[in-house]
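Recap from last week: sequence in, structure out.
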Amino acid sequence: MVKKSFDKLLRESEKPVFVDFWAAWCSPCSSVAPSIKRLAEEFAGKLTVVKINVDEQPEVAAKYQVQGIPALMLFDKGTIKWRTTGVLPYENIRAEVIKTLGW
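Predicted structure tokens:
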């Protein structure tokens, strides 16, 4: 996904957007990947889940001040509502999404 498409998605999405900034060489990114997949499956239709490879999209990572990966962010109507860096258990990620979005 090119930067313009990502920015457009954030601006125009009717649903909140959950973003996983990751890289192929990052073992913590690999360990959190099943949780991100599970989140996408559980909230299908309510939440858009996007994975951004920081090596392929460094300008997007820089724009959102990604300092370490995995970096997880939750956007609603184009605004960052929640962000964290590092591996969290699925239950914690799910709880943050629900709390942040008032679900």
